[in-house]
Fold this sequence. Notes:
This protein has four helices and nine strands; from the N terminus they run βααββββααββββ. By secondary structure, the chain is α+β, with helices and mostly antiparallel strands. Helix 1 (14-32) packs antiparallel against helix 2 (39-52). The radius of gyration is 21 Å and the shape is globular. The structure holds zinc ion (ZN) (2 copies). One zinc ion binds next to loops.
Amino acid sequence: MCALEHEDLNDEPLDYIRAEREFLRERDRREELGEKTSYEGNRDRLHELRLENSSDNYPDYDEDAPQPLIPVAQLYYRDVPGLPWADRYDLLQILWCPRDHPDADTPFNPVFELRWRRAEQVTATLSEPPRPVICASEYVPNVCVVHPESVTEYPNTSDLPEPLAHRILEWAEKQDLSAAYNWNVAFAPGWKVMGHGGIWGIIDPHPIVCDCGAEQLPLFTAASGEFDGGTRSWRPIEEAGTGYRHSDPVEVVIGRGYTLQLYYCPESEHHPGRTEMF
Length: 278
Ligand SMILES: [Zn+2]
Ligand SMILES: [Zn+2]
């Protein structure tokens, strides 16, 4: 549960968010088959769905009570090599509160919650896990199966020795793309674990420091898409022929299309992880 304060800019009932996405997927599927759908018809159906999936269906809902989290990623160490503390855990569960938090480490973003586990010790599961009534639509991921791929990232040029950083920038200029190193070589776009970080677009790169004084490291990155025209070198081979829509299967949006990165303290999993948006 999340007991922080919420100030949602775009909150909707979770039931409506799911119904709307299902409707839009079905509309797209029909249109791809050549069927024409009308703007008015689609608009009216969405209006009906909004009425059918109102939060009024939950008369006991208390918006001031702690709000249930939703699952974001479940990662088995056998599928995702390199996760920390492999001697103690074999499963990492990542949840977040899918709402805007004015008082969070990174304000107006979802708030992460981690569970480090040994899968064999999870014996009892809830038949009906608590679910939020109201969410920010941007923070509700589509249900996805993870097909992780190991890639190698490289440090930000500001963390490299100056002569090497200089040579990289010279090389990038020759590619006719000054961001060639960041976009094509150093930082994998999209959802990922570990790695060197990301392309700091809206703020300058800076170390993420734990309360204990240790520098925290990237653990999990939530992104507003997987790849695009600028980061095509990272496109999975099996998705070479797909269009832009398929590069965003999760359909989460962070800020104005940014990335939210969660860090962990290498000293202890009990030190709260910090976040940064860029
Ligand atoms: Zn919350
Ligand atoms: Zn620490």
